[in-house]
């Protein structure tokens, strides 16, 4: 069943405190249809030292696995109690909480029980590798998971791991890269059909997304060659199948990371992204967003509303690209069309990745006639946009 995950860095949400995740914040998330809140930067990371990248530093350079960051608390001495209060408030609102588990490395100044080596991977020079040749490492890392589970955390986002033993994994090398390449005019929509067929039974194990802490904001100038917003790519990513979908905080109001590096919101430095700052105010008071941001948020709400419908959340899907004849306006390279359905309703979704309006007669295969739909359906969809029709 499709779940909607919302990723946020607490230090950049409102005033940057645990207490900012209050009833109004959770009410806002529930209004979007969020099921799970993934909080990045909860375990205490190294800060204020020469080896640290940025200020306050990376949430992936863990200094103390059994502590949380003092700067997130109103009262530093009560920081763990304050975090546990956040978790209780989230649960009371009907949300689950994820935090990060980083199994491969710790900070250079880490002094805890997890064995580690004096080497780093790649350019992650603020970290050193965990030593899995030491027989005590597995127990030490298990203790970390137990510690946070005891504080009410419902699950973990595991950094830099593969599919084995993991419930869900980023569809990074599949739909994300393909959709970004399509947006940039460098790939064909035909590859989307090939990708989901290749995944087969693994499809429900994927997490679809267009933004996260590693990737560039889709509203930034770095994400593609488009003149407008990638609504078509977003609709495909969110609605094509029952895979979970990740929303990165501020994305829903068009945060473009103008203050960041090449379209990314910094995970290393204190910063105040403009749209995200206004969104924090809006979530608390209903005020603060600019007109364009309110308009984008409204459209995200509508799209997320479709994702929560039974036919999209746990129904079937049928890719229609294969049965579209030549000469009816359907461009196999720049369009997608698919059905989402259950025993009660059927929806047609058309995605236009091209830079021109699409006028298309959608054909439905004979095997669906009288069961999910019949005949044809004419659609007209603006450039880089989508259309959803109940059949």
Can you describe this structure in just a few lines?
The protein has 9 helices and 17 strands.
Would you spell out the secondary-structure blueprint of this structure?
Elements: E1 4-8, H1 23-32, E2 36-39, E3 43-45, E4 62-68, H2 79-92, E5 96-101, E6 105-107, E7 127-129, H3 137-149, E8 155-158, E9 169-170, H4 172-183, H5 190-199, E10 206-209, H6 231-239, E11 244-248, H7 274-285, H8 291-308, H9 310-313, E12 316-319, E13 335-341, E14 346-352, E15 358-363, E16 376-381, E17 385-390
Parallel strand pairs: 1-2, 1-11, 2-5, 5-8, 9-10, 10-11
Antiparallel strand pairs: 3-4, 6-7, 12-13, 13-14, 14-17, 15-16
Helix pairs in contact: 1-7, 4-5
SSE pattern, N- to C-terminal: EHEEEHEEEHEEHHEHEHHHEEEEEE
Using the 3D structure, state the CATH architecture of the largest domain.
Alpha-Beta Barrel
- CATH homologous superfamily of the largest domain - what is it? Glycosidases
What best-fitting shape do the alpha-carbon axes yield?
A: globular
The number of distinct helices, counting runs of at least 4 residues, comes to 9
CATH class of the largest domain: Alpha Beta
End-to-end separation in angstroms reads 22 Å
Biggest sheet, strands in spatial order?
Answer: 8-5-2-1-11-10-9
Main β-sheet, in a few words? 7 strands, parallel
Radius of gyration: 22 Å
β-strand number? 17
- Portion of residues within helices: 25-40%
The number of distinct structural domains comes to 2
Coarse structural class: alpha/beta
Which percent range describes the beta-strand content?
15-25%
User: Could you name the ranges where pLDDT drops below 50 across 5 or more consecutive residues?
Assistant: none
Q: On the 0-100 scale, what is the average pLDDT?
A: 94
């Amino acid at each position: 069943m499709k779940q909607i995950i919302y990723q946020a860095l607490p230090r950049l949400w409102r005033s940057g405190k645990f207490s900012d995740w209050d009833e109004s914040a959770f009410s806002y998330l529930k209004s979007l249809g969020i099921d799970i809140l993934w909080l990045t930067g909860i375990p205490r990371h190294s800060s204020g030292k020469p080896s640290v990248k940025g200020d306050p530093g990376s949430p992936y350079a863990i200094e103390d696995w059994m502590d949380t960051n003092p700067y997130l608390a109103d009262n530093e001495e009560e920081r763990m109690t304050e975090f546990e209060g956040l978790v209780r408030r989230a649960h009371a609102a009907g949300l689950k909480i994820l935090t990060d588990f980083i199994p491969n490395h710790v900070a250079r100044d880490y002094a805890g029980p997890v064995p580690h080596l004096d080497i780093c991977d790649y350019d992650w020079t603020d970290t050193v590798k965990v030593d899995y040749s030491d027989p005590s490492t597995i127990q030490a890392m298990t203790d970390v998971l137990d510690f946070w589970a005891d504080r009410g955390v419902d699950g973990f986002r595991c950094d830099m791991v593969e599919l084995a033993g993991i419930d869900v994994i980023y569809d990074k090398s599949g739909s994300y890269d393909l959709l970004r390449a399509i947006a940039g005019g460098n790939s064909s929509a035909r590859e989307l059909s090939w990708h989901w067929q290749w995944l087969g039974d693994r499809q429900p194990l994927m997490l679809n997304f267009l933004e996260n802490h590693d990737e560039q904001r889709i509203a930034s100038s770095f994400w593609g060659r488009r003149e407008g917003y990638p609504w078509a790519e977003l609709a495909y990513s969110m609605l094509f199948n029952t895979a979970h979908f990740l929303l990165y905080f501020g994305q829903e109001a068009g945060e473009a990371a103008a203050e960041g590096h090449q379209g990314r919101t910094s995970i290393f430095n204190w910063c105040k992204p403009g749209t995200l700052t206004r969104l924090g105010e809006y979530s608390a008071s209903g005020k603060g967003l600019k007109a364009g941001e309110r308009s984008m948020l409204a459209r995200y709400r509508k799209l997320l509303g479709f994702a929560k419908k039974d036919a999209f959340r746990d129904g079937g899907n049928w890719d229609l690209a294969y049965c579209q004849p030549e000469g009816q306006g359907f461009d196999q390279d720049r369009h997608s069309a698919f059905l989402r359905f259950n025993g009660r309703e059927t929806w047609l979704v058309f995605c236009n990745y091209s830079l021109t309006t699409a006028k298309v007669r959608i054909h439905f295969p004979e095997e669906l006639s009288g069961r999910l739909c019949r005949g044809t359906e004419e659609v007209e969809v603006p450039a880089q946009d989508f259309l959803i029709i109940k059949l």
